[in-house]
Specification:
The protein is of the alpha/beta class. It is built from 12 helices and 10 strands. It has a domain of 78 residues. It is globular.
């Protein structure tokens, strides 16, 4: 129920009956439109994507122990599940979700346990379209358990007043407020802040609305950061990214209350990576 509906019902349920009904209809239309837009970002089935695309993405991801993504879509999830090689299947790709099947009954979804996220190595930092909050916890839709198209599953969730867990707010502060409302999202950001060794960034501009990620990197024990640049190095977008990334070592030094290792930053050509 929206704030407008609550207000109208409180003021005079009878007097504003028509307006309340119209709001109900509008909400229904918006839900259907949202489902169509979100599901329209994806093919209906994982096998609608060429196998070669999955293979190239897996090759890019293979060396990394942890993967952090800000994308909402299912392509990463599908990529990690469309494995045919035994070696590929043994790599760490745990998103922390597990089955709650019992008594021989298989549920349509799997769940994230906020008390025991296992050895989670995949983090959707801004949520994803297949993650939903419910009274029984955070659930993940899975095509393999239902064999139903994504748009159908999304419509079912919306009809039951379950909406995807994703961060769509504008500013970094607004994004951070949303992140703090979710154990899952908060854990993802903390995991980023606890990473050591090296971090490869692809598709992240380190803009002002990424300040919560910048803070996590600055406060982390990371020693190396490689950032992808696409196209002309002298483009305004790339110049802003380069300038922002080069300030990170300075920020670490100025904000640190204890001795931290230096952060070495470098850049690479995004087009040199056969990601998809």
């Amino acid at each position: 129920m929206t704030s407008a509906q609550v207000a109208l019902r409180s003021l005079d349920r009878t007097k504003f009956a028509d307006e309340i009904v119209e709001l109900d209809k509008e909400i229904s239309r918006l839900k259907n439109a949202l489902a169509t837009v979100l599901a329209g970002l994806h093919p209906d089935r994982p096998y609608d994507v060429e196998a070669g695309r999955y293979s190239s993405t897996r090759r890019f991801l293979q060396p990394y122990d942890h993967i952090f993504t800000t994308n909402y879509d299912l392509l990463l999830y599908w990529t990690l599940r469309q494995t045919e090689n035994v070696v590929e299947r043994t790599r760490i790709d745990d998103d922390g979700f597990r089955s709650r099947d019992a008594d021989g009954v298989q549920l349509d979804c799997v769940y994230w346990d906020h008390l025991k996220p296992f050895d989670q190595s995949i983090h959707y930092l801004h949520g994803a379209l297949h993650l939903y909050r419910g009274l029984d916890g955070l659930r993940k839709l899975t095509w393999v358990r239902t064999n139903r198209a994504l748009i159908d599953q999304i419509r079912e969730q919306l009809a039951a007043n379950y909406f995807p867990l994703y961060v769509s707010e504008g500013s970094s502060d607004e994004k951070l407020v949303k992140i703090h409302t979710s154990d899952y999202l908060s854990k993802g950001l903390r995991s980023l802040a606890s990473c050591g060794g090296g971090l490869t960034a692809y598709g992240l501009s380190f803009a002002e609305n990424d300040a919560h990620f910048i803070d996590a990197v600055v406060r982390s024990p990371l020693k190396r950061l490689a950032v992808a640049l696409y196209g002309d190095l002298n483009s305004p977008e790339n110049k802003r990214t380069i300038e922002a990334v080069k300030t990170l070592p300075v920020l670490r030094e100025s904000r640190s209350t204890r001795r931290r290792s230096a952060l070495n930053v470098s850049f690479y050509d995004a087009s040199s990576v056969s990601l998809w």
